[in-house]
Amino acid sequence: MKEIAKALHLTSAEVSSWLEDKKNDRKGVSKGFSRGVLETKAQALSEKKDWKPFNAVLALLVYGLVLFPDVENFVDFSAIGVFIAGNPVSALLADLYYSLHIKYEGRRKGMLFCCVPLLQEWLTSHLPRKDSFVSNPAGLKWHQRMMALTEKDLFWYSRELDGTKIILSCGDFPNVPLVGTRGCINYNPVLAFRQLGYPMEDKPDNNLLDEFILKEGEENPALLRKIRRAWGQIHKKPLTKKNCIAKPLYTQWVRERVEANRLPFDMVVRPLSPEPITMVPIEEAEELKAQISELQKKNEDWESKYLQVEGKRARLERDLKYQEGALQESQKSLKESEDKREKIGDGMLSARENLIAKDEEIERLKQSYGKIKEFGQSATASQKKWRLRYLEQVEETKKIKKQWRHEGNQSQEFEGLYTQEKARREYLQANMERVLAQKNQEFEEQLR
């Protein structure tokens, strides 16, 4: 449940509360979610504009109700498992082949349990789309209309498939093993080459058509493991020249297959008209019956030829329209090229005028450059002259500074000598004053 909740961007508790059992005629009981619960949740998420879980819940509804239907109005765990895996293509193909095989094997009637809209889209994509086949003026049934077609009436190949890489086989399998919601079955790519644009050269090798089927309810873990490993070793068809044709050997093989397997209906082009109730002699009645039978046969032949001619006419009309479309595209491209050429011509004329103007501007710039160059040379000479004078001034300044420093040193020496002499003089003066004072004192003592 955690993986389911994670894929739906919801909580495990909420998702677990939706789980319920539903009666299944094949399995007995199926587990899953009811359509009503999922639609209610999607509506609530839409109102809240919570788009991430809304998109996931809506996608789960599509998986369970459209792509992998089983129980009505119920999404079972088989569909949920494919939803979590993320790529439904191989499972869709497996369910389609499995359902067709089961119906054919038992000659059963009833509904196909697969994505029927996908099968219908594939079938109608190859049928004629115009004229009498679509309008059906004769009121023929589907199988009568289809039995009147020839291989030339069908659209075997769409160019939208150009560049598609074809898986030829997987692992040790001679073909492609598929795992669906109901069982496992193989797919034979060699039978689909013409639908992909490649020729059907010869009858297929029987080894490439080896079939296997693991039916619903059967257990074979070893085969399942082998299939899983095989999908890790995919063998693809190398790109070759395409040619959507079928050669006689392949066509003969198809006819033999049809005769061996038999189709479940008669090849009747038009329903037989009711015979009028008329009283006629037996001999005349027998003759009329023979004529009616012959006319009916001729009518069937002519009707078949008519449908074939109509198909051929439709193909020719389609090819003509395709060629007309291609011609219109070519004319449109030619006109666009002419318009571009005119624009380019105008652009080239304008560019030429611009080039002439640029040349004139370049010439003016050259003249200006010559004057600037002369001025620059003169300025360079003046610069050299002033630089020499500057260097001379610098040298003279250095000499003056040197002389000034020398005189400064002499001045400092004279100042030192002056200070020393001054100190000496003051010392001598002090001594003289002291001596005079002593002499005066001695003289005064003598006078006394």
Automatic annotation (TrEMBL):
All copies of domain DUF7745, residue ranges: 2-259
Protein name per the record: DUF7745 domain-containing protein
Coiled-coil positions: 285-319
One Pfam entry name: DUF7745
Keyword Coiled coil on entry: yes
Basic and acidic residues bias (residue ranges): 332-345
InterPro entries per record: DUF7745 (IPR056647)
Top-level division of the source organism's lineage: Eukaryota
Keywords from the named record: Coiled coil
Entry annotated with the keyword Coiled coil: yes
Region (Disordered) residue spans: 327-346
Originating organism: Trifolium subterraneum (Subterranean clover)
